[in-house]
Amino acid sequence: MWTVIYISPTEKVAEKLRSRLTDEGFLIKVKQLSGSKNQYEILVPESELEEVQDALHRALQGAH
Predict the structure, then answer these.
(1) How does residue 63 score in pLDDT terms, banded at 50, 70 and 90?
(2) Which of 1, 32, 37, 40 could form a disulfide with 14 if both were Cys (CB 3.0 to 4.6 A apart)?
(3) CATH superfamily placement of domain 2-62
(4) Strand 29-32 to strand 2-8: parallel, antiparallel, or no bridges (unpaired)?
């Protein structure tokens, strides 16, 4: 089952996060929110949730 771990404000940010997380070996899906032109869900397998959360936190810190 896939779980949303982050809602990105832009497609560019979503793709950047997908790239960083897949480089670390995680399975990532990006899906545009229905009814929204600018928000994208980042989804991961539920079994990887805890590990991906740590990697996502590091990726977001590096983006600022």
Answers:
(1) low
(2) 40
(3) Hypothetical protein rpa1041 (3.30.70.1530)
(4) unpaired
Q: Residues 6, 42: contact at Cβ < 8 Å? A: yes
Give the tens place of pLDDT for each residue, 25-44: 999 999 999 887 789 999 99
Count of beta carbons in the 10 Å neighbourhood of residue 6: 19
Question: What's the sign of the alpha-carbon dihedral 36, 42, 45, 50?
Answer: negative
Helix ranges restricted to H, 1-64: 11-23, 49-62
Residue 47 to residues 11, 22, 59, Cα–Cα distance (Å): 25, 15, 20
Domain residues of the chain, as ranges?
A: 2-62
Query: How would you classify the pairing of strands 2-8 and 40-45?
Result: antiparallel
Q: 16 near 42, Cβ under 8 Å?
A: no
